[in-house]
Design a protein that fits this description.
Helix content is about 35%, strand content about 20%. It contains 15 helices and 19 strands.
């Protein structure tokens, strides 16, 4: 990177994208200050600690280890300098609501046998599917994720066309998976990762079959101290590079221009040359900027397709939960109805697909001795009415569903409990309509169709995080930080224009 020595940068928001961007900019020589609205770093990757229990409040899957290795290697470090990793086996467990139970393990031959038990030839089909997924991952990451192609003409280059040949760029994940598997349960196993992208099988591009390579071939891992431990590691790296952090300091307004910005906060103004916002894109534009400096109007944000919100229960439980794996999915045999209640006719799901995380199965520091730590996550539509009465009723409904379909009755053993849902996402993270993730990865909201890293109206203002490319998820936000920093250096690095 060219030098940013002499430039000062305020990063608004200490989510993954903001923390990543800060590291790259500090490494390039800028004076970087990160301010965070809430009491801790991490954004949606916050932690809840109480009564001896420690919960990752948001992301809980450590996927795509190569992305983390690449990030730390940029600064001549390794993830192992900051945290250890444990490979999970099984990767995850699935309870189907008709009574079937499937463990997806690191042993491909065993997984092929499971697939074959549902459908003749499905084992070999899985091998073909994963080979295509690996190809899409390797080409897609190198040429379409780590390279930010933000204009249509960037896709008209002959080299780009050559690299894209054979990729599953068009069509939906539903159609792509149906080319390999007929059995609906096998289709669900290959599509569950869409929850990490905030989409459904029918509105997510087929390109994202690359997530199966992530799942089956790269493995599922648990970082020491959970995702919160990863946040600590990235923040420590930032400090080593000279980044300073301040929590409990929200931004209330962005004034000025490149070279003379003023970020207003309740603790007083911050003067800076450049600004990077890791706050939600819509919040930054609609709440922190005046109308004439917004790249998009309110109608634009209202017209987007948003990823789900979530109903979360953080539970401290007496005793063990032996039937549950570290990562457990509970799926109805037909999950179309649940997706319809998220994207088409928003309602609290009456036959939900949901996720259970039990880190105490792997890490005995997350719960007091003799207790289990788990949280329940039900994807729900953003913008739903969210009241204490609705939450209490839905909590009872979900706990009964868990008991019925996993054999794990939690109700009489709960010693700690806290819920988090639509209104909390809006209040704590300023997220549009309380979405948990941001804009969904539909075909019209992928790649160059996502909002850009550079402000369209304000020179020296940049954006990072899940609304920008490459999109949703911890690894993608880590890469977003790199792409944002590249834009800043391209615009303001001292070697620009031959100087």
């Amino acid at each position: 990177m060219h030098s940013l020595a002499g430039e000062s940068v305020v990063v608004i928001g200490a989510g993954i994208g903001g923390l990543s961007t800060a590291c790259y900019l500090a490494d390039a020589g800028a004076e970087v200050r990160v301010i965070e609205k809430n009491e801790q770093l991490g954004g949606r990757a916050s932690r809840l600690e109480k009564d001896g229990f420690r919960f990752d409040m948001g992301p809980s899957w450590y996927l795509m280890p190569d992305v983390f290795e690449r990030f730390f290697a940029t600064f001549n470090r390794s993830p192992s300098d900051y945290y250890d990793l444990t490979h999970l086996d099984p990767h995850y467990r699935i309870f189907f609501k008709d009574g079937d139970r499937v463990d997806v393990t690191s042993n491909l031959e065993r997984t092929k046998a499971v697939f074959e038990s549902y459908e003749d030839g499905a084992g070999e089909a899985l091998e073909r599917y994963l080979e295509k997924s690996r190809e899409n991952y390797e080409v897609g990451m190198e040429h379409f994720v780590y390279e930010d192609r933000e204009r249509l003409r960037d896709y008209l280059d002959l080299d780009v066309a050559r690299q894209a040949r054979g990729l599953s760029l068009l069509g939906s994940m539903q159609g792509h998976v149906e080319n390999y598997f007929d059995h609906p349960k096998l289709q669900q196993i290959m599509q569950y990762t869409l929850v990490f992208l905030g989409g459904s099988p029918r509105n997510t591009p087929a390109l994202y079959n690359l997530m199966s390579h992530v799942d089956f071939n790269l493995g599922v891992w648990y970082p020491e101290d959970g995702i919160g431990g990863v946040i600590d590691g990235i923040a420590d790296l930032g400090r080593e590079l000279g980044v300073t952090y301040e929590t409990n300091r929200p931004a209330t307004e962005i004034k000025g221009r490149e070279g003379a910005f003023c970020v207003e906060t309740p603790k007083g103004p911050l003067e800076t040359d450049l600004v990077v916002s890791n706050a939600d894109y819509a919040h930054t534009e609609q709440a922190l900027l005046p109308p004439e400096k917004r790249g998009y109007d309110a109608d634009y944000w209202a017209s987007r397709t948003y990823a789900p919100s979530a109903f979360l229960c953080y539970l401290g439980v007496e005793g063990d939960v032996p039937d549950l794996a570290h990562h457990t999915l509970v799926l109805p045999t037909d999950w179309e109805h649940h997706f319809e209640q998220i994207f088409d006719e928003p309602a609290w799901p009456d036959d939900p697909a949901y996720y259970l995380c039990v880190p105490s199965e792997t890490d005995d520091t997350v719960a007091p001795e003799g207790h289990s730590n788990l949280f329940v996550l039900v994807p729900v539509a953003p913008g739903l009415e969210d009241t204490p009465e609705i939450r209490e009723e839905y909590r009872d409904f979900v706990l009964a569903d868990i008991a019925e379909h996993t054999g794990t009755d939690l109700c009489d053993r709960i010693v700690f409990e806290e819920t988090f849902s639509v209104d909390d996402f809006a209040d704590r993270y300023n997220s549009f309509a309380g979405t948990a993730l941001g804009m969904a990865h539909t075909l019209r909201q992928t790649s160059l169709f996502r909002p850009p890293h550079r402000s369209k109206e304000v020179d020296g203002l940049y954006f990072t995080g899940s609304y920008t490319t490459p999109g949703i998820g911890v690894p993608m936000c880590l890469i977003s930080g790199e792409l944002t920093a590249e834009k800043v250096v391209e615009d303001f690095g001292t070697n620009r224009a031959g100087t």
